Structure formats: C-alpha cells, structure tokens
Amino acid sequence: MKKRITSTLSDVRGELFGFSILTIILFHFCEDAEQADFGGAVKVMIKLYNLVLGSSGVEIFLFLSGMGLFYSLSNHPRLRDFYRKRLARILPAYLVIGGAGCLVLDVLLQKTGWLRFLLDFSTVSFWTEGERLVWYISLILILYLLFPLLYRLVAIPDGRLAAALTVGLTATVAAGCLALHFLSPVVYDRIEIALWRVVPFILGAWYGRKARRGQGFTAEAVILCGMGVAGMLLAVVTKRYPDFLWGVFSLRLGTLFYPFLVLFAAAAVLTKCGGSRFLRAVGSISLELYLSHVIIRAVMNEVGLKTRYPLNYLLCIALSAALSVAVNRLFARR
Predict the structure, then answer these.
(1) What is the 3-state secondary structure (H, E, C) of the chain?
(2) CA 123 to CA 294: how far, in whole Å?
(3) How many CB atoms within 10 Å of residue 277?
(4) Interacting residues of 313 by C-beta distance below 8 A, sequence separation 6+
(5) What tens digit of pLDDT does each residue of 107-153 get?
(6) What is the average pLDDT value for the chain, to the nearest integer?
(7) What whole-number distance in Å separates Cα of residue 185 and Cα of residue 45?
(8) What is the pLDDT of residues 167-220, one digit of tens each?
(9) Overall pTM > 0.70
(10) pLDDT (tens digit, 9 = 90+) per residue, 277-301?
(11) Domain count within the chain
C-alpha cells in the first residue's frame, strides 16, 4: 500500500501533465467568460469550475516538473548535459511560438515598438512591469537554472534531514512572499503569480526523491490532501469576505495547497481507469500547447475575436492544438 501512492503518480505522470494543461485552458475560458457577465447555467458552471479546479493545473504542472527534474538529475548526468536537455525542450518552442506571438502583438498589432518586443520576449517585462503573458517561461527557466542546488538539498542521504530542509525551504519561500506583500505591495502584485508557484515545484522535487527510491508517500500524501482541504476552505472564506486575514494574499495561500488534493484524486482515477491515451498525448505537447494557447488567445482578443464567447474560444483551442502538434513534430525530428 505504501508503494501504491508513489507508483500512482509516477505511472500516470504523462496523463497528469495532459490533465493539468487542459484544466488551465478551461480556467482561462472561465476568466474570459466572467467578463461577458453570462447568467443562468453558464454562470453557475463557471463558479463551480473555479471552486472545484480553478487554476490548480498550474501548481500540478510545476509539481510534476520538479518531480521529473529530480528523476533526470538522479541519473547523474553532467550539468552541461542536464542544462542542454532542459533548454532544448523549452527554448526552440518558445523561440518560434513566443517570438512570433510577441512580434505580432507588440510590433504589428499594438505598435508599441521593438523595445517593447525585446522586453516582452525576454520576459524582463514580467519582473519589472508585471506583464504576465508568458510569465511561466520566465519562472521555469530560473527554476531550471537553480535546480541542481535544490537537488543537493533534497537528495541528502539522511531522509529526515532532507525532509526538514525541504519544509524549511518552503516555509522560507512563503515567508518571503509575506514579507514582500507588506514591504512592497506593488512589486508583490506584479510577480506573486510566479513566486507562490515555487512551493509546489520544491515539493515536487521532494516527491521525486520518494518515488525514485520506491518509498511510500502515504503520510505525506495525507498531510498534503489535508492541507488541500484547509486551503480550499480558506479560499472560499476569502472570496466571501475579501478582507479576511490579508485579502488576496490569503486567497493565494488557500489555493496553493488545494491542487494537491486535485492531483491525488486525478491520479487515483487515472490509475483505476488504466491511464488515458488521450491525456498522455496531450501531456506530450503540454509545453507547446501552453505557449500556443496563451499567444493565440491574446492575439484573438487584440483583433476583436473575444475569447469570452464559446465559439471563439473553441476556435482558439483548435488553432492552439494544430500549432502545438506542428511545432512539436518539427523539433522532434531534429
């Protein structure tokens, strides 16, 4: 039984990547649809989706990424090879999709000039101005760069010491977010979407250690699920009473742990069903799908094809899927 939870996530990791990116795409539609002020059943469905899943796919994506990086580095590759493999996975797709997207948006449509293009394409504008179009790329590149340091901490032979250090690190990240929230609210509001997501990445690396060694994760899974329930309750209370504790800060804190409950529930269902070829296929192009989706969504809204309308959003998904498959196959051949 102890190995079952460990093997559950490991065996359906590809499917979980697919599940997470699909929930992110649906969450973005809910964001857009809220602006259209739909009523009736649509409004109820949007609220229900935000309550049950919301943006939890992002935390799941980063948790799985941390887990995968631990597996990769535990094979003891040279750091040069480790970095080359990581960059080869993300940079070609970003150069094509992100580069074309920023060019179209900044130079052709918004006509904000080449300097704006360089700031957005390099993701510098996220850290300086809070431009969130491709914030995930900026964060994951930094996490890739720093991961060997995290690996040394998590992979310490003494399991109890490694666990204590992991808990200490996650607490430090949370405390840093809290400190920034009070010391510089403007800066915090710009980048909090990325800062909080470091926590599930760290915990994913820790889980990678457990899974790699075939150790049970039962106690930790129960704790994380319990924190997930508590987080959901905190988020619900904060939405109902916006000034509860620290307002938006409390909402982010609440939604930080709820995704673990979603993760283990999805893994259990997928394992019971024997996996999913469709989700595994989606998971294999999850990075390209993320990039295509956020870029095409932004372009469509800029030209007046508002994605808050279902038919337009379906078109956005279809175009994103086609571009993702094309780019993935293009670089897979090389």
Answers:
(1) CHHHHHHHHHHCHHHHHHHHHHHHHHHHHHHHHHHHCCCHHHHHHHHHHHHHCCCHHHHHHHHHHHHHHHHHHHCCCCHHHHHHHHHHHHHHHHHHHHHHHHHHHHHHHCCCCHHHHHHHHCCHHHHHHCCCCCHHHHHHHHHHHHHHHHHHHHCCCCHHHHHHHHHHHHHHHHHHHHHHHHHCHHHHHHHHHHHCCHHHHHHHHHHHHHHHCCCCCHHHHHHHHHHHHHHHHHHHHHHHCCCCCCCHHHHHHHHHHHHHHHHHHHHHHHHHCCCCHHHHHHHHCHHHHHHHHHHHHHHHHHCCCCCCCHHHHHHHHHHHHHHHHHHHHHHHCC
(2) 14
(3) 11
(4) 29, 32, 307
(5) 999 999 999 999 999 999 999 999 999 999 999 999 999 999 999 99
(6) 85
(7) 33
(8) 899 889 988 988 898 899 899 989 989 998 999 999 899 888 877 776 555 566
(9) yes
(10) 999 999 999 999 999 999 999 999 9
(11) 1
For the record, the structure tokens of 156 come out as 């310490």
What's the pLDDT tens digit per position in 4-39? Answer: 554 567 788 899 999 999 999 999 998 888 777 777
The pLDDT value recorded for residue 218 is: 55
Question: In terms of residue numbers, what domain contains 174?
Answer: 2-332
Q: Which two tokens stand for residue 252?
A: 């982010």
CB distance 231 to 215 below 8 Å: no
Smallest Cα–Cα separation from 56: which of 226, 196, 243? 196
301 CA to centre of own chain: 23
Residues 6 or more apart whose CB falls under 8 angstroms from that of 202 comprise 66, 150, 154, 166, 169, 170, 173
pLDDT of residue 3: 44
